[in-house]
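Reminder to self: tokens first, then the designed residues, so the page reads top to bottom the way the pipeline ran.
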């Protein structure tokens, strides 16, 4: 049986070589076969590149936004030592990954510059540290983080917002903050004056919508008895697990970054899935072309199939001949797509820069990115390859089964 299967594979290779490389009369068969391979390669290449670009944007957005968005916010003041005590009480695995616990305040405010105004989120923070929050620490454009805590009523704005409003270092800023009257319960506007001591640039929306000041100074000026505590995690994607552990232990409600920005990242993930499904249609179309080429080859080889049946080759071996042939064609397309997709993804920023230089056009004009971010992930490539193999196998299997079940009288017609 093994010998017969090996013979079927050898016959399939001969049919394939004769159909694609041979100088036979059926050029249409050769064209369809080559087109199906190239279509499969194009689909695999497009999937690898586009999914890697979506991964790159997802990575950049998370790293930039999560450097300023608190991973978890506790409505009480605490420090890392108290967190360590809770960790020891709960045992390992519950609060792993908490790298910092800092005092924190976040208040909606209205920046008033002349006749213009801009809504922003005023965050009272402790001075960022390069070992705890390196991205935020390195985002400083002008001034220094020391000035945030050493100068009273100092504030830092995004560089883009400062340029948009025509603000320079040392300018006085007026912020209107909503306040609730303790006696009447009415909502009253409250104005606070600040001095612009620095600017930052994260390359994301917070450049326009966020401002930083010293948390102790803000707490004093607002007359608050205590601030909140923000927790920084080494793995922000595990924030929900840490949140549930602390809520169950302390009996307070915590806020997670997924509550404020989870929908945004879910939308990015959904866009990635939709692009994946859309580009998968290229692989499906290539598989249909493969079905057409196999159908033509089966009809062309009718007499050869009849001869093989009369010589004792089983119907299972006939099926193996065409199944192996189609499988080899699809694997060739997948392999070529991988060979093209990986280098193109790795050198995509250079390729995009070359195209922009030739056509004098900027693909990322008006965005926060200077170049297209990419991130190759082995799991994504594995899913793409498995999907392509499954789709192509599902497409060629009916043709192979039909060839194996053809009667001798039919194939001799």
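Designed residues (413 positions):
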């Amino acid at each position: 049986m093994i010998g017969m299967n090996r013979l079927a594979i050898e016959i399939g290779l001969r049919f394939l070589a004769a159909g694609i490389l041979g100088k036979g009369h059926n050029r249409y068969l050769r064209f369809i076969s080559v087109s199906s391979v190239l279509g499969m390669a194009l689909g695999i290449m497009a999937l690898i590149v586009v999914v890697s670009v979506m991964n790159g944007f997802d990575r950049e957005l998370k790293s930039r936004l999560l450097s300023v968005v608190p991973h978890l916010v506790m409505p009480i003041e605490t420090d890392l030592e108290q967190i360590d005590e809770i960790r020891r009480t709960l045992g390992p695995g519950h609060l792993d990954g908490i790298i910092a616990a800092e005092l924190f305040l976040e208040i909606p405010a209205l920046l008033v510059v002349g006749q213009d105004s801009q809504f922003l989120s005023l965050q009272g923070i402790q001075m960022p540290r390069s070992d705890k929050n390196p991205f935020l620490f390195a985002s400083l454009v002008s001034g220094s983080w020391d000035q945030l805590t050493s100068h009273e009523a100092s504030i830092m704005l995004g560089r883009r917002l400062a340029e948009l409003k025509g603000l320079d270092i040392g300018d006085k800023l007026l912020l209107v903050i909503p306040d609730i009257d303790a006696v009447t319960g009415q909502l009253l506007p409250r104005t606070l004056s600040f001095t612009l001591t620095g600017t930052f640039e994260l390359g994301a929306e917070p450049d326009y919508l966020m401002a930083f000041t010293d948390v102790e100074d803000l707490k004093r000026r607002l007359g608050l008895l205590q601030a909140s505590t923000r927790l920084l995690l080494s793995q922000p994607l595990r924030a929900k697990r840490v949140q549930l552990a602390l809520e169950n232990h302390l009996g307070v409600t915590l806020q997670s970054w997924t509550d404020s920005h989870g929908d945004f990242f879910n939308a990015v993930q959904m866009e990635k899935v939709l692009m994946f499904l859309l580009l998968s249609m290229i692989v499906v179309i290539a598989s249909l072309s493969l079905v057409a080429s196999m159908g033509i080859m089966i009809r062309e080889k009718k007499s050869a199939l009849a001869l093989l049946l009369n010589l004792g080759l089983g119907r299972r071996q006939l099926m193996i001949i065409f199944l192996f042939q189609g499988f080899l064609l699809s694997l060739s397309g997948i392999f070529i797509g991988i060979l093209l997709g990986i280098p193109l993804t790795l050198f995509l920023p250079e390729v995009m820069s070359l195209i922009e230089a030739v056509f004098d056009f900027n693909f990322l004009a008006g965005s926060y990115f200077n170049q297209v971010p990419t991130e190759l992930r082995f799991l994504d490539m594995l899913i793409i390859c498995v999907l392509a193999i499954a789709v192509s196998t599902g497409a060629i299997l009916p043709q192979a089964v039909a060839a194996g079940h053809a009667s001798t009288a039919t194939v001799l017609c």
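The first strand starts at residue 72 and ends at 74.
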